[in-house]
Amino acid sequence: MDGSRGISVEGCGMTTPFAVGAGVEVLAKSQAARCPTDASFWSIPDDFLDGFADFAKELKRDRASWITASALLNACTDASLSLGDFPPPRIALVLGNAFAGQLGMIDFAGEVREQTPRFVSPIHFPQTVGNYVAGVMSRAFTIQGPNLTIATGASSGLCAVAKACALLADDSADIAVAGGFEVLSEDIVRGLGGSTHGADNSGIWSEGACMYVLRRMADSVSDEHRAVITDWSSSPVEDDCTDAYTVAARVGQSLAAESAMRLAHSIAQSPPANSHAVSHDAVTLTVET
User: Fold this and answer.
1) Distance, CA of 282 to CA of 159 (rounded, Å)
2) How many CA atoms lie within 13 A of 17 on its CB side?
3) What average pLDDT score do residues 151-159 get?
4) Which tens digit of pLDDT belongs to each residue from 172-229?
5) Where are the domains of the chain?
6) pLDDT average, residue stretch 82-110
7) Which CATH class is domain 7-288?
8) How far does CA 65 lie from the centroid of its chain?
9) By Cβ atoms counted within 10 A, which residue in 53, 61, 62, 139 is the most buried?
């Protein structure tokens, strides 16, 4: 697919254990924050999420959905637009997640052990499915266009952005919301080897979401883009940009969410009229700011 037509990054929203809001500025706040050293992993404070209207009861049933929705709402604020202004069939949603459904499986298994399958909550079983959050988000925001959940390990968030760019280039949608989210448990984080803080106090945060609002450059009505994505191929990046884009070393790690934040980090670090390649595993995005 020819990526020369360009995809505009209209807005970015993030929800992290340290800050929540619109735009890449949240990344800087999260980088500068510190948490108590006795925490084995960092989760998002409930009061961060209490500030959002309960526009869909289903979002309250699942923490991953609520965290992802808050990031999406902030991305729309950053883009100065409402998804309600677009025909639902022309809105695409692409989410990346490395451990989709893991917490749902744990809750479901726990209920089975404590009771019997006959009395298990009808909510917990759907949460064991990897695309559960995407389904909840599509109902809450009335998204009826392409709906995908990508699970490619830690690169899932950036892979989701790349896929959303391809959908827009193919005219499968007029606007796309894409990014990564992660919600883990202390047991899972410990199993990943993240039970203690590193020497640099970067730690591991188990929850987070980073969402983008994307449009074709030809359809964008704003001259103030966060960035313009000109390539979303799967070609590997030859230049060594490891140091510049290792957000995990500065913020912490939330797998798919951290992957998506690599794009925001590139946008924040790039001087005007400069171009950079943002690489994570097999996905390459070229960003012009």
Assistant:
1) 8
2) 23
3) 85
4) 999 999 999 998 877 777 666 654 444 344 456 778 999 999 999 888 876 667 788 8
5) 7-288
6) 89
7) alpha beta
8) 11
9) 62
Count, residues in the chain: 289
* DSSP state letter for 86: S
Helix (H, G, I), strand (E, B) or coil at 101: coil
Which residue from 23, 173, 148, 16 is spatially nearest to 95, judged by alpha carbons? 148
Query: Among residues 177, 161, 132, 260, which one has the least CA distance to residue 11?
Result: 177
Amino acid of residue 160: A
- The type of residue at 89 is P
Residue 38 has pLDDT above 80, yes or no: no
Pick the closest to residue 31 from 47, 49, 16, 48 (CA basis). Answer: 16
SS3 state of residue 236: coil
Q: What does the alpha-carbon distance between residue 168 and residue 197 come to, in Å, rounded to a whole number?
A: 40
Closest of 165, 102, 155, 97 to residue 129, by C-alpha? 102
Task: Report in angstroms the alpha-carbon separations of 41 from 3, 74, 188, 254.
Answer: 39, 24, 10, 10
- Torsion angle defined by CA atoms of residues 3, 96, 32 and 263, in that order, rounded to the nearest 10 degrees: 0
